Amino acid sequence: RARDPNQPEFMQAVKEVMTSLWPFIEQNPRYAEQGILERLVEPERAIQFRISWVDDKGNTRVNRGFRIQHNSAIGPFKGGMRFHPSVNLSILKFLAFEQTFKNALTTLPMGGGKGGSDFDPKGKSDAEVMRFCQALIIELHRHLGPDTDVPAGDIGVGAREVGFMAGMMKKLSNSAASVFTGKGLSFGGSLIRPEATGYGTVYFAEEMLKHAGQSIEGFTVSVSGSGNVAQYAIEKCMQLGAKVITVSDSHGAVIDKAGFTPAKLAELIRIKNEERGRVQTYAERLGLVYEAGKRPWHVPVDVALPCATQNELELEDAQTLIKNGVRCVAEGANMPTSLDAVEAFVNAGILYAPGKASNAGGVAVSGLEMSQNAQRLMWTREQVDNKLHAIMRNIHENCVLHGKQPDGGVNYLNGANIAGFVKVADAMLQQGLY
Ligand code: NDP
Questions:
Q1: Under a CB-based contact definition with an 8 Å cutoff, are residues 105 and 420 in contact?
Q2: Where do the annotations place substrate binding (predicted)?
Q3: Cα–Cα distance between 370 and 90 in angstroms, integer?
Q4: Which residues, at least 6 apart from 378, have a Cβ–Cβ distance to it below 8 Å?
Q5: What does the alpha-carbon distance between residue 120 and residue 106 come to, in Å, rounded to a whole number?
Q6: Is residue 1 predicted with pLDDT exceeding 70?
Q7: Is 114 a catalytic residue?
Q8: What is the pLDDT of residue 321?
Q9: Burial class (CB in 10 A: 0-12, 13-18, 19+), 339
Q10: What is the ipTM of this complex?
Q11: Which atom of ligand 1 has the smallest separation from the CA of 248?
Q12: Which residues form ligand 1's pocket by a CB distance below 6 Å?
C-alpha cells in the first residue's frame, strides 16, 4: 500500500494471510463487514521513541525503540521485544500482525503486540545492557500494564534483559504486578517458559506426522539457529527419538551426521548462552563440519525446523529440501520461509506448518505465566508441560478443522490463518468500532 512504503516484511506477512483467507472470506462475506480487514492491517497504536544511554567508556549512545500495539480485541497486547540491529517498523509490524493470530490460536485471552530496538546486545557488557534496558523502560513504562500490554523476550532478549526491564518497570510503576513474561523463576517466572517455543514446535511437528500416519521417532531433523527456540527444539527431538544433524547461527552452519546428544547440546548452550559465542566454536571444539556463511537446508532430512529468523529459507532451499525427500517443515521462527518457498512446500504436498501455529507454544506458556502470577501460584514442570502439550494438540486440531482439503490432506497454512482470523474477527465484530 502507498500508505506503508518501505515495509516489505509487513507487506509479505499481510499478503500471505490475506491470500490464504480470501476464498474463506468470499464464502463468508460478513467477515469483510465493519472494515474488519482494513482495521486488521492497521495497528491500534504504534509507538516510536528515543533511547539514550551511556556506554562503559562514558559515551552517549542513542537507539530507536518501538512498541506496536496491534490488536486488543481478545485481551491485553502481548508479544515479545526484539533487540537486533535489523529492527525497524516493518519487521515489528509484521511480527505484531502475526502475533495477533497466533495468540488467538492459543485460545488464551491475549491480543497481539511486538516491540524492540535496533540495539545490538552482542559485545555489550552486562552493565551496558542493564543501562540500555532501564533507559528503554523509562519511556515505555507508561504504555505497559498487566491488563494493557505485557511484553516478553524474542531475538536478543532473554532472561537477563527481561529481568532488567521488569526491575525498572516495578520501580516506575510502584507495583509488583508482573508486566513481563519470561521472567526469572525467583520473581514470578514460569517453569517450562524457556523450553516452550522449541518444545511446542516439535509437539506440533509430531502431531502433523501422526495425523499423516507417521512418527518423528527415528527421523533425521535439520534445525537452523542456535538460540532459545533452536536449543529446546533440539532437546525435544532427542527426547522423542529423532536425530538432529544440523544447527546454525548468523555466521554459518554445523553439520553433525552422528546427531546431537545431551552432552553436545549442553556444550552448545554453554557456548551460546554463557560465552555468547558462535557455532563455529562449537564445531571446532567437537570436531564437527562447519560451513561458513551457509544455511543447513542442503542436508537431506525427514524434518526441517527453521528456528532462527525471517526469510532464512528461500525458494532454492525449499526445492533442495523437497528433492531430498523432506516430509515435514514446522516453523519455530516467525516467517522464516519466504512466500515462494511456502508455495513450493504446499504444492509438493509437504506437511508445512506456519509459525503462527507451530511456534505458538512460547506465547501460550507466557499466557500461563500470567495466570500463575494472577493467582500468586507456581505450577510444577509437569503441570505446565502438560498444558503446553494440550494447547499444541488443540491448535493442530483447529488447523485440521479449518484446513481440511477435498483429498483428505490438510493445508496447515490456510487452517492456521482461518482459525486465528475467525476468533479475532468475531471479537472485533461483537465489540463494534473502537
Ligand atoms: P535468540 O536470540 O535466542 O536466537 C536467534 C538465533 O537466530 C541465533 O542463533 C541467531 O544467530 C540466529 N539469527 C538471528 N538473526 C539471524 C540472521 N539474520 N541470519 C541467520 N541467523 C540469524 O532468539 P529466539 O530463539 O528467541 O528466536 C528465534 C526465532 O523464533 C525468531 O524468529 C523469533 O521471533 C521466534 N520466536 C521466538 C519465541 C520465543 O519464545 N523466544 C516465540 C515464538 C517465536 P546469532 O547467535 O549469530 O545471532
A1: yes
A2: 78, 99, 102, 153, 366
A3: 28
A4: 190, 191, 372
A5: 31
A6: no
A7: yes
A8: 98
A9: middle
A10: 0.98
A11: 9
A12: 153-156, 197, 225-230, 249-251, 307-309, 312, 332-334, 359, 362
